[in-house]
């Protein structure tokens, strides 16, 4: 099954107030709905103008305010009532206000509500608005749009979904089918065949049927899902639910049967494919099997004498240590003297340290020296995830003075810390004497792209000053990782301002980095205009590097915009796309012919020269 997790809270932005009295008043009414107080401030002025007292926006949108579910629900009711008096363009202006400054869960919550309202007024225009947001946010807003669109006009919604990019189409189609509870009329199914989305529709229908069946016959639902022709890796969430239901309803013999089936399948992918999608898929599902009763499955696996036993022991211990590390350690003690005993202990200690860091740091002296560096590092990671930074810093200093190696701890600390306070994390890395200079460069390579989201100029300056002077690939130089972070955050003005100071050896990579990000934000014209800053001879290579993403993200506009490029650039793009058969499967015969003609024209031009 294709699965889509509807995350209400993802990356977004919040912006300034729109000019003009009417829209300013409307905007403040929306912000009133997002404020901490639940006292209504909305007052109608005539039929379509709202006024309320202006409040401090930083307080209104404070992440730390007491916006509990009941409070948000009341605000949603007030905001929904206010929106009834507004036109599409007025609501659109309010939405635009929310996408240009600091983001938080409250803003995303109300952005979702605004998109719901816009979708009911004009779904086509709402799609255009969504396509100007960041790629991550698009993935969250598209299902909202299409679930409401389907209620207005099911066939029109399906037709629109079929025209989306390869990455967007499945989530839109799934949202539509879910609104219909998987029950589509014959003529609607015929339309999906004509549109070429019948496979995606069938997947969702099968998923909904399996979810219904799992309540009464989870084993049958499990067999049904595994019996279809959908790639297993697309079904992980659904199968995890089925497994959980099955284990709660079945007896011990069924548990063993399920575990044995997974052990056999795991053996087919171990060891070479554990890192690919299928390996991750089965590892995740194994966790759902084992966490029901790790002790039972540990004993079951120990009775197996195959070479797979030790690897599955590690998988089981990782899960068990997250549930009851003391019990897991006692079980491992029975294997003392065996080949994998030390590694079994290390697996438990790592997980234990992450789950209960303060306890483990206080008992470090009782841990064997060979495990201490790992325990200290994982414990510091656990503290950082709890945002106990001062405590983590204190322990790093303490153990460094005691002669312990804290380099790995510094990595974990700076990595997590930079997610929510990149400035302080960067300053600490620049000042600390607890790590060696070469290692400092490695850590800065990881942290500076995060700093770039809030202070792009400082991040780039530090990348030039402290970055790796000899990267194995220009794309992975510290400077380019910072530039990529800036562009992927939607700050194209900041990214473009850096072009004059970028080293000449990196300039082609810089243009490609910004161009890819522009396409991700559906800024095709800007990506094309960017090429004009390059010498004409370098433009074909630039577009060749963008070709596959351009077609993947915007297939409906790819051929419409192709003639905006120079002939040489068109030829480069055609050559690149024709290298990959999977892209041609999404093209019509006429479109393939267009690319083949361009490629052959290039060959003729070369021969004539």
Strand content: under 5%
Helix content: 55-70%
C-alpha geometry = globular
Q: Could you list the spans in which at least 5 consecutive residues all have pLDDT below 50?
A: 1-70, 603-609
Compact description:
The chain has 609 residues and is an all-alpha fold.
How would you characterize the overall build of this protein?
With 609 residues, this protein is an all-alpha fold. The chain contains 35 helices and two strands. The protein has a two-stranded antiparallel sheet with strand order 1-2. Helix 1 (21-33) crosses helix 4 (88-97) and helix 14 runs antiparallel to helix 15 (277-290).
Keywords:
two-stranded antiparallel ribbon; 35 helices; 609 residues; mainly alpha; globular; single chain; disordered N terminus
């Amino acid at each position: 099954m294709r699965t889509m997790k509807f995350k209400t809270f993802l990356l977004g932005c919040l912006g300034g107030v729109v000019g003009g009295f009417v829209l300013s008043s409307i905007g403040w009414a929306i912000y009133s709905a997002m404020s901490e107080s639940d006292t209504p401030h909305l007052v109608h002025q005539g039929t379509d103008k709202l006024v309320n007292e202006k409040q401090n926006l930083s307080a209104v949108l404070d992440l730390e305010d007491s916006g509990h579910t009941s409070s948000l629900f009341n605000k949603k009711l007030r905001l929904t009532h206010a929106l009834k008096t507004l036109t599409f363009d007025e609501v659109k202006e309010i939405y635009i206000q929310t996408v240009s400054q600091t983001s938080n869960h409250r803003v995303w919550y109300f952005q979702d509500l605004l998109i719901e309202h816009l979708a009911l007024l004009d779904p086509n225009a709402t799609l255009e608005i969504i396509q100007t947001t960041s790629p991550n946010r698009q993935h969250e807003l598209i299902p909202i749009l299409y679930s409401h669109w389907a209620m207005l006009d099911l066939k029109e919604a399906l037709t629109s979904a079929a025209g989306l990019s390869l990455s967007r189409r499945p989530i839109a189609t799934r949202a539509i089918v879910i609104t219909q509870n998987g029950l589509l009329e014959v003529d609607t199914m015929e339309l999906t065949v004509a549109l070429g989305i019948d496979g995606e529709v069938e997947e969702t229908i099968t998923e909904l049927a399996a979810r219904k069946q799992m309540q009464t016959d989870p084993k049958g639902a499990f067999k049904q899902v595994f019996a279809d022709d959908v790639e297993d890796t697309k079904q992980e969430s659904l199968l995890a639910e089925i497994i959980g239901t099955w284990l709660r309803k079945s007896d011990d013999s069924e548990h063993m049967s399920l575990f044995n089936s997974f052990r056999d399948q795991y053996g087919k992918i171990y060891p070479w494919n554990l890192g690919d999608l299928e390996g991750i898929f089965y590892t995740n599902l194994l966790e759902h099997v084992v966490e029901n009763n790790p002790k039972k499955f540990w004993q079951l696996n120990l009775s197996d004498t195959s070479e797979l036993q030790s690897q599955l022991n590690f998988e089981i211990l990782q899960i068990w240590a997250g549930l009851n590390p003391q019990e897991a350690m006692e079980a491992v003690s029975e294997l003392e003297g065996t080949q994998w005993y030390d590694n079994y202990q290390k697996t438990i200690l790592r997980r234990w340290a992450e789950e209960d860091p303060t306890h483990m740091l206080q008992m470090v002296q009782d841990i064997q020296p060979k495990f201490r560096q790992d325990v200290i590092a994982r414990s510091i990671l656990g503290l950082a995830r709890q945002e106990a930074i001062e405590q983590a810093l204190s322990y790093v200093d303490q153990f460094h003075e005691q002669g312990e190696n804290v380099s790995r701890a510094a990595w974990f600390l700076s990595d997590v810390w930079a997610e929510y306070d990149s400035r302080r994390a960067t300053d600490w890395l620049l000042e600390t004497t607890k790590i060696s200079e070469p290692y400092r460069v490695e850590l800065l390579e990881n942290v500076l792209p995060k700093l770039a989201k809030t202070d792009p100029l400082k991040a780039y300056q530090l990348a030039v000053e402290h970055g790796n002077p000899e990267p194995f690939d220009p794309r992975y130089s510290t400077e380019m990782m910072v530039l990529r972070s800036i562009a992927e955050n939607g700050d194209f003005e900041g990214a473009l301002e850096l072009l004059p100071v970028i080293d000449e050896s990196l300039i082609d990579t810089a243009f490609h980095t910004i161009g890819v990000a522009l396409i991700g934000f559906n800024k095709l014209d800007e990506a094309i205009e960017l090429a004009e800053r390059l010498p004409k001879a370098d433009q074909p290579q630039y577009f060749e590097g963008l070709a596959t993403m351009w077609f993947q993200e915007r297939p409906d506009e790819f051929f419409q915009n192709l003639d905006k490029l120079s002939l040489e650039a068109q030829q480069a793009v055609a050559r690149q796309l024709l290298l990959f058969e999977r892209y041609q499967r999404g093209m019509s015969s006429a479109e393939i012919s267009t690319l083949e003609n361009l490629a052959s024209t290039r060959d003729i031009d070369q021969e004539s020269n």
